[in-house]
Write a structure and sequence with these properties.
Layout lengths: L1 E8 L4 E3 L10 H10 L5 E5 H6 L9 E4 L11 E3 L3 H12 L2 E4 L3 H9 L5 E6 L6 E3 L2 H7 L2 E7 L2 E7 L5
Parallel strand pairs: 1-6, 1-7, 3-4, 3-6, 4-5
Antiparallel strand pairs: 2-8, 7-10, 9-10
Length: 164
Amino acid sequence: MSVVATIVVGADGSSSLGGSSTEVTSAADRATFLQRRRTVDCIIIGGNTARNEPYLKTPVPLVVVSKQSHPQLPAAHVWNLDPKDALDKARDEFGENILIEGGASFISYLLENNQVDVLELSVTSASGGADIFDYMKYLSLANSVTKSVVADTTFYSAEFRKQK
């Protein structure tokens, strides 16, 4: 079983510029992002991500955790659940390997509630955006962290041991 959360941020922790992550990401991050999502049983995103990012086609089932409907994503499963409950339901319906592609607050909530096994973090040189993700806080809380640099992007893989 594995819950992996992935997020791209600028050097200042901003996860969006102009309402989207498009201006924060890099070519290296995008390649890693696309490769990662092909290896999971489902992808879970929050409502803000569904409204602001292009999710018309995904290689696996897409779950939107939101109190609103999302008619622009007709193939998505829209669940009005607490994100923790959505993880349980996704495991039952799709399998154990779940990828969280939500924004800063969505991923922070799941990390704070001990629901993430691995945080895959990409840090680019962008700055001046919004939706700040305190990535240094979460890296300091991880049981182990690996770091690599590809072109203009620093990648961190932080593993968390869940408390029972």
